[in-house]
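Incident review: delayed structure delivery

Summary: a single-chain prediction request sat in the queue longer than the usual turnaround. Root cause was a stuck worker, restarted by the on-call engineer. No data loss occurred. The affected request and its eventual output are reproduced below so the record is complete for anyone auditing the incident later.

Affected input:
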Amino acid sequence: MFKRTKVTDGTATGQGPDAENWDGKEVGFRKKSKVPGVMITQYIEKLPEGKSHPDFTRKPIALTIQEGKFAFFKAIVTGDPKPTVVWSRNNGDVSDPARYQSKYDPNSNEHTFEMPHVKPDQADTYKCFAKNEYGQAMVTVVLNVIEVGFKMTKAPQQQAEVANCNFKKVLKRRSKVVPKAEEPEKKEGEIDPKFWELLMSADKKDYERICAEFGVTDFRWMLKKLNEMKREREEEQAEFVKNLSDLKPIHINADGTASFELEFDLLDPSSSIYLYKDGEMIPYTKELGDKMKHCLRKVGRKYIFSMRDLMPEDAGFYQLDVEDVNMFSTDFKMVDFLVKIQEVKAMEREDAVFECVISAPLSKLMWFGKNMPLEQGDKYDIEVSEDKLIHRLVVKDCMVVDKGIYAACAGIKSCNAWLVVEADKGAPKGKKTARKTTRAGGSGTDLQKVAQEQQQILDKEREERKEKIKAAREAAAEAAAAEEPEKTADSGAGKDKGAAVKVERIDKTSVAATTTVAGDSGSGHSAGKASGGAKQDGSHADAGGGHSAGKASGGARKDGSIADAGGGHSAGKASGGAKQDGSHADAGGGHSAGKASGGAKQDGSPADAGGGHSAGKASGGAKQDGSHADAGGGHSAGKASGGAKQDGSHADAGGGHSAGKASGGAKQDGSHADAGGGHSAGKASGGAKQDGSHADAGGGHSAGKASGGAKQDGSHADAGGGHSAGKASGGAKQDGSHADAGGHSAGKASGGAKQDGSHADAGGGHSAGKASGGAKQDGSLADAGGGHSAEEASGGARQDEPLADAGGEPGITSGLSDIHAIRGQPAELTVKMNTDCDGAWFKDGEPLKSGGGISITKDANIHKLTIHSCRDTDSGLLRFVSGDLSTEGRITVGDVPEFDEDDLHKFSKPVIVRVGQNAAFKMPFQPQESLTVSWFKDGTELKDGGGVKIVREPNHSRLLLRDCLRSDSGEIKIQLKNPFGAVEATSQLIVLDRPGPPEGPVETVETTSSVIEIKWNPPKDDGGSAVTNYIIERQERGHSLWTKLGDVSAEKTSFRDRNVTHGKKYSYRIYAENPQGLSDSLETADSIMAGIMILSGPPGKPKVVSTSKTCINLTWTPPEDDKGVPIIGYQVEKRKKDTNQWLALNAINEPIEDVNYAVKDVTEGAEYEFRVSAINESGAGDASPPSAMACAKNPNMRPCFKDPEDFLVVRAGNSVRVKISYEAEPPPHITWLKDDEPIAPWINVINTEGMSQLVIPSSKRSDSAIYTIKAKNSVGEAFFDVEVRVTDEPKCPGPVELEQTVYGKVAVSWVPSPDQELDDRLYYVVSQHDSNTRMWKTVADRLFANTYTAHNILPGIEYHFRVYAKNDMGLSDPSQSPTWGANSNRVPISSNGVSSMEISFERPPSILVPLKVHTPPKGYQLYMTCAVRGCPTPNVSWYLNNTCINSDKNYYITNSCGVCSMYILRVRENDGGEYRVVAVNSLGKAECSTKLTVRD
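Output delivered after worker restart:
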C-alpha cells in the first residue's frame, strides 16, 4: 500500500453536493520532478487525459548581489490547465509593489520576480508556488545581499551595542588588510600587513621569497612572531572550521581564468563566507555563469574561487574569510614581457628556440604550441634562468608538422610567434636525414643584459625596503631609550597663567640650527620631517604646511623664542612655540592627526593655532593679558573659533575646515574679524596696502600659485598655506621685510627674506575659488576670507572710505539664481549690493545663521552664504533680504551620474565584429531624473535612425550599429549627463574584414625550363588585421583546374615554381590571407611559358565507338599540324562528369602508338569525356577538343524489381509509403493501379532513378487495397502486387451475456465489434477472472466467432469475463460481463415500510471571499480573485462599469471549484473602474464589487 499525505485543497468551502461534509482537506500525492529541488503535490490519484499538474522546467537560481543593485529571479512553469504562479518569502511580506514586482512574459513563458534597488533586509529564502486544480509545485531560492557602507539607521543600535560592551556586532565586517583608499599613511619602515597574511597561508619553501619581496632580513624574529600569530589564528579558525588543508595559491588556468582553492569543513553550514580584494569585499556567485565576474564553487570539501575576464586591475591581494576569521590569503600579481618571443625559421631535424624576459621572477610560464599546452618531455625542453627572469622553450628535432604558432603566457599577458620549418631539399628521397646539432631562433637581443638591469631594479627596491625597516627599528629603540620627553607649549592654555609654557620635544632630526636668517620651511608634502629654521634677530621662522608623515614643529631661535610649527600635515603633533619678545608664534595650518594649538605668550600678543587639519581640537592658547589666542584654520573634527580679547580686538578664526563650527568673532573697535582659509583651486594672494595694515591671503589649497602681496612698509603680508600643485612663495617687500610662503604645495614652498625681523606668516586658507585681499589706502582690512566656494571670493576696493558710496538708494547689483550643488562638495551664494548695508538670509522661510556647516559673511557690500559640505537637507529656496530689497534662488543638491565598476569593466572591452555583422553596446546605470544619455562615435554624437538604433530604458541604454563597415571602426562613448555633471565611458569598435587583393601587376622574375619565379606587392588594405600569408595557385593552359602550389609568409612577396614542364604555359593567381579570410585574387595578365619548346598541334576530337559497364572504346585522327616534328604517340585523358580534373590514362613516357584505345578504368553508370594530346620529342602538345559524354553501362535490359515487400499494414491517419526498387535500361515508364483501376488523383507517385514511391498523405480505411506497379520499356515490361491494409485499433465488442447450458459450463456471447465488417483480420480474445485466484487469465484467443463456452464453472465462486477485439494494430478496450456465481441470484430485502430521510444540499449562491481593492501601476499585470459557493453550481459573470466582460479577450477569466479569477496581462487606463462579480443559480443570486484605480 502507498503512504498518502494530506494536503489542503484550493476549493472553496461549500462547493458541490458534499460541501457540508467537506473538512477543508483532501488526499494528495507527492510526485517527483525532473528538476532537482522541486516539490510537487498532486491533488487526485489519476489525472484526466491531456491534463497535468504544475512543474518547473526552469527553477530560480540562488543569487548573491551587492546592495543597491537590481535583483531578480526567473522561472518557467508547465501544466494544463495553466498554473497560477505566486511568490513569497520566509520572513516578510512581498506585497509592496515598490520593492517587489511579479511579471510574466507570454512569449518566453517566463515568470519574473524583480527587486529593484535591493536592500539588506530583503536577504531571505524565497518561495515560488505554481498551482492549478490538479496540484501544486513549489521551489525555494536564497537571496544574499552584500551590505555596502555605513547606514545612519544603524548608528543608535551600534551605540547601544557599545554601551553593552558587545563590540563584535559593532565592528563593520571587513578585512584586516585596509583598502588602499582608506589606508593610513604608513610610517617609514613599517611592514605591510599583507606580509604576515601571506606567510600564514604559504608553504615554508616560499618564506624566503616572501621575506625578500617585503625586505625582511631578520628570519629568527620573523619565525618567532609568525608562530605566535599562527597559534592565535588557528584558535580563531577552530571556532568555525575544521580540517583546513590543501591551500593552493592563485594561478592562471588554461581557459584564461584565475583560481585558488582550499579544503575545510564548516562546523555550522549556515556560516557566511566572504571574499576580499585589497581589503574590500567583492560580490560573487555560487554558480558558474556570465552574470558576475567572481565565482565561489564548492566541490565536496573543496572550495574553489575563480575569476574570469582577467584585466590588469584584477591584480591584488585576495582573502577568503569565514564569518570574521581569515582562512586563506594569496597575492595575484601581473607580470609583463620585457622581451617577447620572436619568429623562428628552422631547417628540418634542427632544434628551435623561443626565449623571452619577464618583469618579475616567475618559476614557470605556460607554453602553448598550436593551441595545445606544452610540458617538459622528449619533444620539448622548458628552461628557466637562476633569477627566474629568462624563460626558454626548445622544440627538439623539428619536423614539418611542428610548423605553427607558439605562445608564452604569464597570467593574462602573452606573446606568440611563428615556427617555420623548411624541408631539407638535399635529403635523399625515402630516407630520414641525420639530426642536426645546431639551434635556430632566439630573440636577437642580449637577454642576460636585460635581465640583469631588471634584477638591479628589483634589488634596489628590496634594499630600500630593508633600509626603511632598519631605520624604523632604530628610531623605535631611540624613543624607548629616551629618559624624558621635552616639554612643549600646551595649546590647551590656561592651566598656568604664569610665564611657564609647555614645550614639545623636538626630534633631533627635525631642527635645522643655523646662525643666519633662515627662511621658513613651508608647506612641503614630505614623507620625512619639516621644520623651521633659526633666525638671529628673534623673528619668526615658520615651519609651515609640511604634509609630513613624521613631525612638524617650530625651529629654535637664539633669543629664546620658538619657531612656529605651521601647517604640517603631520601624523604627529603640530603646535606653536613660546616667544619672550612678544613676536608671533603660529601653530598654523597643521593637517595633523594629533592636536594643533597656539602657544602661550608672556606679553599678551596672540599665539595663533592656525590652519591645523587636526582630527582633534584646534583652539587658541591662553595669554597673560587676558586676550585670546586665535584658533585659526583648523581642519578639525572638533570646534575651531576665535576667542575674545580684553582690548576689544578680535581673535581670528581663520580658515577652519571644521566639522564643528568655524567663525570670526566680533571686535569692539569695529575692525574686521577674518574667517580666512579658502580651499582655492585657483590663486590665493594677499592684497596691496599703503599703510601697514594686515592683508591676509589665507590658505588657498590652490592648484595654481599662492603668494604674498607687496607692502611699502615692514608690515606683515601672509602668503598662506596653499595646497598648490604649482609654486607657493612669499611676495616681495620694498623695505626688505619677509613675506612668508606657507603653502602646502607639491612644488616649492619657501618664505621670503626680512631685514627688520617682522613676522612672515605661513597661514593656511583652503578656498576652492579665488581668494585675495582687496587694496586699501586708509588702513582698513580687506579680507580674503575662507570661502569654500567654487565661485570667486575677493575683498572690495577702497580709496578713502570703507566703501565707496554710489550716492543712490540701496539696490542689488548681483542677485541670487538657481544652482545645482554636488553632494559632499562646498557651495557659495553671493549677493552684491551697491551700498554697504546689512542683510539676512532665509531658507524655506526660516532664518539662517552661521553654524552647522554654513558660514555667513559680509565684506562691505558683498554678502556671502557658504555651505561647506552640501547635503540633501541643504536643498531648498534661499532668500536674501536687506530692508525692502530681496533676492532668492533655489539650491538643489544631488550627485553626478556614475557607473558600476563591474559594468564599466565589461563596457570597456572592445567589441570586435566582422563586416556586415551588427555591433551592440549596452551600459546599465542607476535610474535618475533629468538624466540625458548620449552616444558618440569618434567624438560625433550618434542619432537614432538609419543603421543606428538607440534604445533608452530607465536602468540601461543600448546602441546597435547594423551592417558594420570597416569605416565604422573607432571609439564608442556613452555620456550620462544631469544638472550636476556628466560621466563618460568609452569602448572600442573593431570591424574586421578580409584583406584587399595583392597589388599588381605580377612580375616574372625568372623563367627557365624548370623554374618560374614571380613577384607581387602587398595589398593596400589589410582588412584591419595583419596579413599572415599569401596563397599561390596555378593553372596550366588548356586546363580549367586551378591547383594550389603552397603559401608563403607575409614578409615574402615572391614565389618560385619548380614543378613546371618545359614548353608548357601557366597562369598564376595570388591571394592574401588574414584571420578573417582570403582576399580576391591577383592574376597574371598572360600565361607564362617555362622555357622555349616546339609542341605538336591538337589531334582530332575523340569518338566513342562502344560502351559497356567495364570498358569504353575510343578512336581519333592524327593532328593536322605536327610543326615539323615527328609524333611518337598519344596521351589520353579522361574527365568524369561534374568534375574539373583531367586524369591521364598513360604517362608521357609510355605513349599510345595507335589512334584507338580501350578505356577500362571506368565506374559502372558514370559518365566520362575524353581528350587526346600528341607527344613528340618536346613533350605533349595541346589537347584535342573533348569527346561527347559516354556512360559506362551495359546494353538495354527488361525491367525487373529488386526485393520488394508484398504486404503493408498502416494505422489510419498515417501516411502510406510504398517503395519499389527496379533495374531497367532504358528507363521504364511506371504505372500504379489500385485493384486494377487507375489510382485517385490525391495519391502521389514519386519516380526517381531506380525507384518508384506511392504516397498516400493521410490514409483512410477505404485506402486498403491491392496496389500494382507496372514498369515498361522498349525491351519488355514487369508487374508486382502490394497489399496495403489501412486499419486502426478496433472498437470494443458489444454487451456480453452469460448463459448456463449444462452444469459446469457457461456460454459467453457478445455483440460483434463495429469493425468486424471492415476488417477481415479481426478476431476476439476472452479473459476470465474468478474470486479464488483473483487474477485475469486469457482463456481463448483468435476467436472469429461471437461465442465462447467456459468450462469448469464451479458453484460458490464468482466469475467475470472480458472480451477484446484484436487486429494488426492491437487490442481494443474490453467489454465486461456481468458477475456469474455466488449471490448472483440474491433476492432484494424489502424495508418493511420504513423510509429513510432524504437530505438536500441545494442552497443559493453566497460570497465566501469578496474582491479586494487594487491600485496597480499602468502597464503592470493584475490578478483579481474571489470565492463563491452554491448548489447547484452557480453561473458567475464579471462586469466592468455594469458591462459584462466575460467574452472580452483582454481579460482572462477562470472559475476553478468556486475560486473565480480575473487576470489582466498589462493594465491600461481604460481598465480602471468598478468591477462586479454576480453568481446566479436556480435558488438565488449573490454579488460583490470593488474598485480598480490605475496609477501612472
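Verification: Residues 1-26, 150-173, 486-807, 1385-1389 have pLDDT under 50 and may be disordered.
Action items: add queue-age alerting; document worker restart procedure.
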